[in-house]
Amino acid sequence: MKLILFVFINIFFLNITFAQDGEYKIKGEIKGFPDNTWIYLSDLSDDSYKKIDSAKVINNHIELKGKLVSNVFFASIHTNDYENRIKLWIDKTPIKINLEKDNFDDGVIIGSITQKKYIDFYKSIENIENSQKQYLEFIKNNPSSILSVYFLRGLKNKVSKDSLILAFEQLNKDVKKSIYGVEISDFINFKKDIKIGNQFVDFEMANISDKNIRLSDFKEKIVLLDFWATWCGSCIEDLPNLKTIYDKYKSKGFEILGVSADSKKESLVNVINKFSIPWENVSDYKGAKNKASIIYNITEYPTNYLINKEGIIIAKDVNGKELEKVLNELL
Q: Which of 28, 148, 164, 173 is in the most buried spot, having the most CB atoms within 10 Å?
């Protein structure tokens, strides 16, 4: 991952009109594009590109201005096709940019105090493979910084639960209420130690008809708990094969419960209808941060767990012929 070239020049503040509190202001050069090319600003707070602003390039210049999503937020400046894009932290400090087509990664960003702190921290890391201690020290020394909770979020699967809780408790209450803070809080409260040979962990989520479904509803059934998403290409590719297996073994006591990591109900409904998926699918439309995925610590899609009639997890990531073989043995 390339680090953004960041230049922080104090004199810059003498030559620019400050944005009002609660507003962001981004202006500067974007070279290599014809006039009237649209450039977008997207909020990346939930790890997806949510367009919040746009402007046209005129004479290699652009200006973006609007209401802050929050006091500080992670964002991207990009073209409509995302082939040119750069990520940055935006706060109420005016930002000046200097970008060039096909080379956004090496662009210059001046002004964002949070961005400077972000870049300075990464420059201070001596060994990215063994940087955990430096992250934890930063978090301890910067309890009010959004960067602390952002970094801690990245550590949640790398440190012990006790260490995670200790670091989280050091943060101030406003940072804990941020989107990253809520994610960590959910992770601490919901995540369980899922192992083959253990009893399944129950949860309840709604299907596309808004009916609440519990994993424990499938009593005395062999259940494939399938974590997937409509944006997951390999998940979609496997649907016809999974339907064949479901049709073959359903009458013998086999069920599938799909947990969708989608953020829009419409996307899930469209795919269910398109492929005529006959088994239950549930979601809370929080993307990969849905409650069931947190409980089962799902970090990639697709992932599945096979649960026997006694409620014991007996396998993970069984597909195709391997799944059929196990079902033949059990049924």
A: 148
